[in-house]
Structures are given as structure tokens and as C-alpha cells.
Design a protein that fits this description.
By secondary structure, the chain is of the alpha/beta class. Helices cover about 50% and strands about 10% of the residues. The protein has 19 helices and 14 strands. Helix 4 (about 75-90) crosses helix 6, helix 6 (about 125-160) runs antiparallel to helix 7 and helix 13 crosses helix 14 (about 425-435). Keywords: Lyase. This is Isocitrase. InterPro entries: ICL/PEPM, Isocitrate_lyase, Pyrv/PenolPyrv_kinase-like_dom, Pyrv_kinase-like_dom_sf. It catalyses: D-threo-isocitrate = glyoxylate + succinate.
Length: about 525
């Protein structure tokens, strides 16, 4: 007995109990609508997807090849089409997630218009996008199940019991498009209370995993830009606690917190950490400061000093009232950040790096795992990296170390198209192709994501169409470059009315009004050209 069958029987029993007033209600139609609306609240989604992530994390601990992946999306439709594509080509959504990028929310979803990634956009835009994404994913479920129901009706009408049994099994074992979302809460959009309140809204919308970074909230910068300012560990841990409280209050006891450190590229701090005794967390944070030893008579008006080992030290303070760290301390600060976060409630780590280099990441992870053996990373396969140049230079260095003659290559100019068909370029592309697998095995990366790929793909595909359509190709640019490919490659959007829910609406009209229903999908619907 399946849930579908149970619903048919329970509604039939209820209909009998109510009597003739419900004569127009078809129990199977109700069962179909319930199947198409499996998740009734965002909290149901958050719990379902948290269970998936925890299961995947446990599997990765035993097998590093079982890493997970996602692409950043900025609209519900884009997320929907990504999951439809995954199911079509790869047959399962297993270990494939969505990433909600604060960068793309700022650039594409703010009422202020395009903004830089500096936490200036409306904080409500983040839970709103989570809600939108899951609305579109649930609609994708409804659409695919609607198509299966139509096939089931056709098989029944034809008396084909074998087909009926097969289609019914597809309905009973249907895999949802709903997958985990790792959602970016930036630096928390304010104090810990503000972080807690926003985290609650994100979880209520369906987020099972929230990523927070250790930058100053009102000075937050994109992880790949200059001018990043970190906060003392105690400040960051308060926000991790705030998120955990939000999960626990809402009953998502296994919600996932991703602690991101920007310390590798952040040379500044807004304030000195509070230290109560030598070697405590505040003292460790302050130990990275760029300081000079002074005597009391050297102090000027408003100078700030700290003491360590009997020395009077003056941290170097900028005109912005920020303090700077000693150069070259970034990796050590990252390691301390990560260990501290894991020991205080975080589940996964995110180390924002300046380049995709496995040895660099692994060096830090080895140190972290010495303290926390199960440490795992979420890693940003960022579009801010020049992947071609980075890996061609890594390939160049590896081949040179092997003693090969590299005189045919200019290391500084390896992006040049003239190198595209060389052995070095092919070697570099192989390194890029296996980067996720290799780094997951060597550097503890559980989840690979690209933060803003669909920002770039939208621009590129639009450029392709505009160039041809407004140029010499005219309508052929759309027909050849879009519609013909949709038809031949089985892209569901070619029947855009169906994708937008027209056929579901027609079925509902028939449920509600019977033969009196005025439906849109008749013989004159031009979408029939794509049947």
C-alpha cells in the first residue's frame, strides 16, 4: 500500500461519511493534488533536507569520493531548470544541492538595483528567495507528476494493465526536485539578535544549512575583494550560537551551520579581542596583530596599548580606526578560526582562498584535522578565479619541476589562445576536470559550489541571442540557437505554457467544474506543435 493509495482510500471514506454534499469530490483527484504538494511548509522542507545533508556528511566521512555539489542560483526558475536538467541527464538529484549566493542577491534581487556584495541589500530578500526557489521546485514536482497522471489515465483508457502498473510504480517512487539549499546569511546583517531573527526566517522558508562569515557586518566585503575586516572569535561564536538557537527553536535539531573564514585575505580587524589570561582565545587573536613595543613616555593622545609577557605593545591603527594584522599570518588565522568554530557549534567550514590550489587548502585542513579529525569544507569554486590561467601556471610549474623544457611557454601569458591546443593546456584542463574529485580526496572538501555561475550564463546566452537576432541572422538566431535545440535536446521549456502550469490548471478546472470547465489546452493551443 502506497501513500497515494492510502490517500485515495481515506478521502473515499471521508466522502462517504460526509454524504451527498461531497458528491462532486473525486478521491483520486485529491490524492493527486496531495502527491503534487508533498511539502506543506518550509519547516517540513528544512527537516527533510537537513536529514539529507547529515546523511551525505556521514557518507563522505567514510568515502571522500562521495562529495556533494551545487550551483548558485538567483531566481526560482533558474533553480528549477537546474534540477530538471539534473534529473533528465543524471537520473537522480542525489548529492546535488542549490546554493543561495549573497553576491547574487545583492547584484540581482535588491529593490535598490544592482549592489556590490557588501550586505547593503534588504535582509528580507534572502528568505524571500529561499521561498521562491522551493516554490519553483515544488511546481516542478507538480508538473512531472501531472504528466505521469495523464499517462496513467491514457493507459487505463487503453486497458493496458502492464503500462498502468509501470506508471503507478513511477508515481509511487517519484523523486522530488526539492534538495538542500546552502543559504548565505553574509556576516549576519547586524548583532547576534539580528542574525537570529534572519536565520529564523530563512529556516522557516526551508533552509537547512546557513553559511555565515567572520567579517564585520557593517563593513562586509565580497570574499574576493580587498578591504575585508574580521571580528574577534567571541563575536563570531555568538552569531553561530544565535543560528543554532534558531534551528533548535524551530525544531530542526540537525540543521547545518557553515562557518566561513575570510582571514586569509583579511588583513584588518575592527577591534581588539577581550583577553582574560595569557593564551585564551582573545589573546590568541591579538597575538596576530601588527604591534610595536613602546614605553609609557612614548604614548600619544588616544593611543591604545596591550600587554603581553611583560611588554607594553601598541597595535598599529589606521586612520579608519581599524587595526592591522602582521603580514603572512592569514593561514594561521584561518586554521585557528576553523578549529574554534568547529569546537563551538559549527558543522562545516568554508575557507575563502585567492586561488584554487589543492596543496594550499590541504595544508590548512591537515592542521585543522589534527584538532578536529572530522573537519569538512564547503569550497567556493569561484568565478573570481581565472581558472585557465591558474591551472596553466600550476601545470607549467609541475612540468618544470619534472625537468621538462618549458622554453616554448611564457608563464605570465599562458591565457593566450595560442596555447589552447598545447600539451600544457590539455594537462591543465585535466587538472581542472579532476579538481573537485582530487581536492575532496586530499583537502577534505565535502561540498563544491560555484557561487554565481548562472549570473554569467544568463549574460553569455543573452549575448549570443542578441548578437544574432539584432544582426544579420534575425529570427534564425532564435530558431537555430534556442528553439531548435530545445526541441532536439528535449528541453521542457519548449512547451512553455506547460512549464508555467497551464496543463495543471486545466486539470484543476476539470476537477472543480467537470464538463463545464473552460480549458486552455484544446486543439487550437499552439503548444500542440511541440507534443
Amino acid at each position: 500500500m502506497t501513500t497515494y493509495d492510502d490517500d485515495v482510500r481515506s478521502i473515499d471514506a471521508l466522502k462517504t461519511q460526509i454524504g451527498s454534499a461531497w458528491h462532486a469530490i473525486d478521491p483520486e483527484n485529491v490524492a493527486r493534488m496531495r502527491a503534487q504538494n508533498r511539502f506543506r511548509t518550509g519547516l517540513e522542507i528544512a527537516q527533510y533536507t537537513a536529514d539529507i545533508m547529515r546523511r551525505d556528511m556521514a557518507e563522505y566521512d567514510g568515502d571522500s569520493s562521495a562529495y556533494t555539489q551545487s550551483l548558485g542560483v538567483w531566481h526560482g526558475f533558474i533553480g528549477q531548470q537546474k534540477l530538471i536538467s539534473i534529473k533528465k541527464h543524471l537520473k537522480s538529484t542525489d548529492k546535488r544541492y542549490l546554493y543561495l549566493s549573497g553576491w547574487m542577491v545583492a547584484a540581482l534581487r535588491s529593490e535598490f538595483g544592482p549592489l556590490p556584495d557588501q550586505s547593503m541589500h534588504e535582509k528580507t530578500s534572502v528568505p524571500a528567495l529561499i521561498t521562491e526557489l522551493y516554490t519553483f521546485l515544488r511546481q516542478a514536482d507538480a508538473r512531472e507528476l501531472d504528466l505521469l497522471f495523464a499517462k496513467l489515465d491514457d493507459a487505463r483508457a487503453a486497458g493496458d494493465e502492464t503500462a498502468v502498473e509501470f506508471i503507478q510504480s513511477q508515481i509511487d517512487t517519484y523523486e522530488t526536485h526539492v534538495v538542500p539549499i546552502i543559504a548565505d546569511i553574509d556576516a549576519g546583517f547586524g548583532n547576534p539578535e539580528a542574525t537570529y531573527l534572519l536565520a529564523k526566517k530563512m529556516i522557516e522558508a526551508g533552509a537547512c544549512a546557513i553559511q555565515i562569515e567572520n567579517q564585520v557586518s557593517d563593513e562586509k566585503q565580497c570574499g574576493h575583494q580587498d578591504g575585508k575586516v574580521t571580528v574577534p572569535h567571541e563575536d563570531f561564536l555568538a552569531k553561530i550560537n544565535a543560528i543554532r538557537y534558531a534551528f533548535l527553536e524551530l525544531g530542526i535539531d540537525n540543521g547545518v551551520i557553515v562557518a566561513r573564514t575570510d582571514s586569509l585575505g583579511a588583513g584588518l580587524t575592527q577591534k581588539l579581542a577581550v583577553s582574560h589570561e595569557p593564551g585564551d582565545l582573545g589573546d590568541q587573536y591579538n597575538a596576530f596583530l601588527d604591534v610595536e613595543e613602546v614605553s609609557p613616555d612614548m604614548l600619544g593622545n588616544g593611543d591604545v596599548v596591550i600587554t603581553r609577557d611583560g611588554q607594553l605593545l601598541r597595535p598599529k591603527r589606521l586612520a579608519s580606526n581599524l587595526y592591522q594584522f602582521r603580514p603572512g599570518t592569514g593561514e594561521a588565522r584561518c586554521v585557528l578560526d576553523c578549529i574554534t568554530s568547529l569546537q563551538n557549534g559549527a558543522d562545516l567550514l568554508w575557507i575563502e582562498t585567492e586561488k584554487p590550489h589543492i596543496a594550499q587548502i590541504a595544508g590548512m585542513v591537515d592542521e585543522i584535522r589534527a584538532a578536529v579529525p572530522t573537519a569538512k569544507l564547503v569550497y567556493n569554486n569561484s568565478p573570481s578565479f581565472n581558472w585557465t590561467l591558474n591551472f596553466r601556471q600550476q601545470a607549467y610549474d609541475a612540468l618544470a619541476q619534472q625537468g621538462q623544457d618549458m622554453s616554448a611557454y611564457d608563464r605570465a601569458d599562458l591565457m593566450d589562445v595560442t596555447y589552447d591546443e598545447t600539451d600544457l593546456a590539455r594537462y591543465a584542463d585535466d587538472m581542472i576536470r579532476s579538481f573537485q574529485k582530487d581536492s575532496s580526496a586530499r583537502a577534505g572538501i565535502f561540498h563544491h559550489l560555484i557561487t554565481l555561475p548562472t549570473y554569467h550564463t544568463a549574460a553569455l546566452s543573452t549575448d549570443d541571442l542578441a548578437k544574432g537576432y539584432f544582426g544579420d541572422e534575425g529570427m534564425l538566431a532564435y530558431v537555430k540557437g534556442v528553439q531548435r535545440r530545445e526541441i532536439r535536446e528535449g528541453i521542457a521549456t519548449v512547451r512553455h505554457q506547460n512549464m508555467a502550469g497551464s496543463d495543471i490548471g486545466d486539470n484543476h478546472k476539470e476537477y472543480f467544474a467537470g464538463d463545464a470547465a473552460l480549458k486552455a489546452g484544446g486543439k487550437d493551443n499552439t503548444m500542440n506543435q511541440f507534443s
